[in-house]
Amino acid sequence: MHPVGPLPPGAYWLRRLVAALAVIVVVVLAWWAWGALTGDGGGSSPTPSLTTSPGPSTASSTPSATASPTATPKPTATATPSPAATTAAVAALCPAAAIEVTVATDRTAYSAGQRPKITLTVTNTGSSACRRDVGQKALELQISTGGKRFWSSDDCAPGGGASLRLLGPDASYRTTVVWQRTGSQPGCPADRPAAPAGEYQVVGRDLDVRSEPATFTLR
């Protein structure tokens, strides 16, 4: 407590204080090193950390906006004329010299009650396609007997407007009529006499072109 020496007492107290501090530092370092080795952290019990388990994720109630595709306008359909229609529009009318008309019956003789079927054919004999009127007004079948006119398809069915048909080279248009075996007059009067037995001739016409007569017999 009473330092003895040549130095002042305060110097000896300072040495003692430094020595004491050095001892304290050594002890503290030794305690810290021991705690690091043992995991004890200097003897204090570690405080467990609170671990929060993540709960189930909640889907968003607001659906994500999806951009609707932009409507693409549909192309407008354009009618394309067929080659036949285009050709018919530019083809010239058939000249009479290129038209041949023929008639034929399904039989040469008919028993009582049998009705003749007469086919009229219009043929383009030219070398190029052309248009020909084959409407009801342009066509006619005429039947005669004994050199006298007996029946005509124009009497009771005179027809209306023109009906142009495109005919290629050697192409034909055909129509068939069933004759009821009765006579007729222009204007189609109600009195139509029955055709008597005998020989008949039928001639076909398309506009100003006539056929050769076809002969048949009614019994």
Highlighted features:
3 helices, single chain, alpha+beta, Immunoglobulin-like, rod-shaped, three-stranded antiparallel beta sheet, six-stranded mixed beta sheet, 219 residues, 27% strand
Describe the structure.
- The chain has about 220 residues and is α+β, with helices and mostly antiparallel strands.
- The protein folds into 2 domains: about 10-40; about 90-219, Immunoglobulins (Immunoglobulin-like, Sandwich).
- About 20% of the residues lie in helices and about 25% in strands.
- It is built from 3 helices and 11 strands; from the N terminus they run H-H-E-E-E-E-E-E-H-E-E-E-E-E.
- Strands 2, 5, 6, 9, 10 and 11 form a 6-stranded mixed beta sheet that branches.
- It starts with 8 loop residues before the first helix and ends with a strand.
Which series of helices and strands comes N to C? Answer: HHEEEEEEHEEEEE
Q: How many structurally independent domains?
A: 2
**Fourth CATH level, the homologous superfamily of the largest domain:** Immunoglobulins
| C-alpha-based Rg, rounded | 62 Å
State mean pLDDT (0 to 100 scale): 80
CATH architecture of the largest domain: Sandwich
